[in-house]
Amino acid sequence: MNPAEAVRMFGGVLEYAALRGLASRREIDAALAAGEIVRLRRGTYGLSSEGARAAAVAAGGVATHLSAAGHHGWKVKQVPDRPCVTIARNRQRPDVDADLHWGTVPLHERREGFATPVRTVIDCARTYAYDEALCVADSALRSGSVTREQLLAAAARSPRTGRSRAVEVASRADGRAANPFESCVRAICHGVDGLDVQPQVRVEGVGRVDLADRRLRILVECDSYEFHSDRAALRKDIRRYTEGGRRGWVVLRFAWEHAMSEPGYVHDVLVDVVHLRTAEAVPRSS
């Protein structure tokens, strides 16, 4: 697989070990030399953000939303096809091939070329669907670029349009989520009555799981090729899932395609399982 395509598929940021499983070292070096991907930090690669910066300069604005998220090194649900640029409210539409937004354009952001981390999260929360916005907020917290307190405060004072969405995303964001795949599945879980999952939960006899509702004893695993690419890893996870069932947990496994292309299916499965577990009056001990 082309390295840039691999990085794009996994949210715009990918660790070297995972990238190496999808592309050869020669292909990775060639993509770096061509500027198709960039080294964000040791062992981590991303897509170049220079196109977004150039579009922002041409439009007289600042790169924001998902383009700013990529610049900050955060994984997103889907890398934008065009740069996201915000220009001042009194500006007319410039002749720039970009996803344009109108808003405030502070001087310090103009100088940097990109929106600040906190603004980026709030902009995405006010603009995009819940799952896409949650991916950005989770990634931001995971990176340490922002704190929950900063996000809650910024959401509370954000413009009225979209403020309720910003507050919801800020209050539910969790830096423990490992990647956008898990964030998307958790977003679906949030829409299921009676289900209360937490990310990266350690379960006795099973180990750390992606999502778990301790009350209903439901485990949700997000099976990604990024982390399950060899036989040994597969065997280890099969044992974990079996041990979960052995201890009275219902184990649900979803593929990346389910979360991204069939969220309705994931939702319906969760609703049915919650109904069954509630009817069974599952003991609340963990």
What's the total helix number? 14
Topology as a string of helices (H) and strands (E) = HEHHEEHEHEEHHHHHHEEEHEHH
From the N-terminal CA to the C-terminal CA, the straight-line distance is 42 Å
Question: How many β-strands, per DSSP?
Answer: 10
**Strand arrangement, major sheet:** 7-8-9-10
Helix content: 40-55%
Low-confidence stretches: none
Shape: globular
**Oligomeric state of shown chains:** single chain
Structural class: alpha+beta
Question: Largest beta sheet, briefly?
Answer: 4 strands, mixed
* Rg (C-alpha, Å): 20 Å
Quick check: average pLDDT? 93
Overall domain count: 3
| Range of strand content | 15-25%
Please tell me about this protein's structure.
There is one protein chain. With 286 residues, this protein is an alpha+beta fold. The protein folds into three domains: 3-47, no CATH class; 50-172, no CATH class; 180-280, Endonuclease, Chain A, CATH 3.40.960.10. The protein is 48% helix and 17% strand. It has 14 helices and ten strands. Strands 7-8-9-10 form a four-stranded mixed β-sheet, sandwiched between helices. A three-stranded antiparallel β-sheet has the order 1-3-2. A three-stranded mixed β-sheet has the order 4-5-6. The longest helix is centred in the C-terminal third of the chain and has 18 residues, at 263-280. The model has no long low-confidence stretch (mean pLDDT 93).
